[in-house]
Amino acid sequence: VVCLVAYHIFFMLFVWSYWKTIFTLPMNPSKEFHLSYSDKESLEREPRGESQQEVLRRAAKDLPIYTRTMSGAIRYCDRCHLVKPDRCHHCSVCDKCILKMDHHCPWVNNCVGFSNYKFFLLFLAYSLLYCLFIAATDLQYFIKFWTNGLPDTQAKFHIMFLFFAAAMFSVSLSSLFGYHCWLVSKNKSTLEVFRAPIFRHRTDKNGFSLGFSKNLRQVFGDEKKYWLLPVFSSLGDGCSFPTCLVNQDPEQASTPGGLNSSSKNENHLFPAKPLRDSQSHLLTDAPSWSESTAKAEKGKVGMSNPALTMENET
């Protein structure tokens, strides 16, 4: 009876997670990231150069974006006509920009991103548990098959096939689930593993990592009672994400305040732009900027990289 109840629980959670992964539409950037009609006309009218860069800088000056392209330009999608939010990428299959895109999964015929990443993780977890449960309960009959302890009927071949299928899926799912658990612990996406996010002055593969606990809560939320259920509980709006904000140079001497004198003026890698209210509490113990530094950085936005150019990226 216990095995039967456990079987039905795993099966229902598996189907529920799979359903939510497939039919949850990926979230697109909000309207504030789309260029206005006048900005679109200006961008199309001006040749590629400083004039286009100025249009993009003007459109992005009040947006909570920290990342740039490989050449230091503002990330812009010329197909969707929008300034890309951090961790947003254009999916060539869906032909639209997906917030915090992880990958396009052919097995669910959907993009895995901010809106359904938790469902995808639970789908992998419950699929793995389901396969392990089937393999464990079928093991005794599989052993009897090889010791000739089963009646000589066609059902014995079904038992062998079921065990092999469950065991093989368990191996493949365990590796995939383990990989995504590692991504969650580091607050990375699959795309960010292959191409680390590029911030204003340098590439930082751990730029969005806030520590294991906060990284976990970004995907599963603050309410632990919802962690194991396929209901949306991720933090934030998918358009802006808290970051480490400051990287210190370990080769330079540190001041008593904890930041070296050079980093106070030069090594602030991110513009001083406010985070969404739903995410700011994740950075309660992160180092904060001084008011003077924030004003100085704001004045240098768009000037520290004179070679800014508009680029397309997936």
From TrEMBL:
GO CC aspect terms: membrane
Disordered: annotated span: 252-314
Keywords in alphabetical order: Acyltransferase, Membrane, Transferase, Transmembrane, Transmembrane helix
Chief location of this protein within or outside the cell: membrane
Molecular functions (GO terms): protein-cysteine S-palmitoyltransferase activity
InterPro entries on file: Palmitoyltrfase_DHHC, PFA4/ZDH16/20/ERF2-like
Entry's EC annotation: 2.3.1.225
Topological relation to the membrane, as annotated: Multi-pass membrane protein
Compartments (UniProt record): Membrane
Top-level EC class as recorded in UniProt: transferase
Catalyzed reactions per annotation: L-cysteinyl-[protein] + hexadecanoyl-CoA = S-hexadecanoyl-L-cysteinyl-[protein] + CoA
Stretches with biased composition (Polar residues): 252-264
Pfam family of the protein (one): DHHC
Transmembrane spans: 6-25, 119-137, 157-179
Domain Palmitoyltransferase DHHC: 74-193
Family: Belongs to the DHHC palmitoyltransferase family.
Domain notes from UniProt: The DHHC domain is required for palmitoyltransferase activity.
PANTHER family: PALMITOYLTRANSFERASE ZDHHC16
Name by which UniProt lists this protein: Palmitoyltransferase
Native source organism of the sequence: Eulacestoma nigropectus
Gene: Zdhhc2
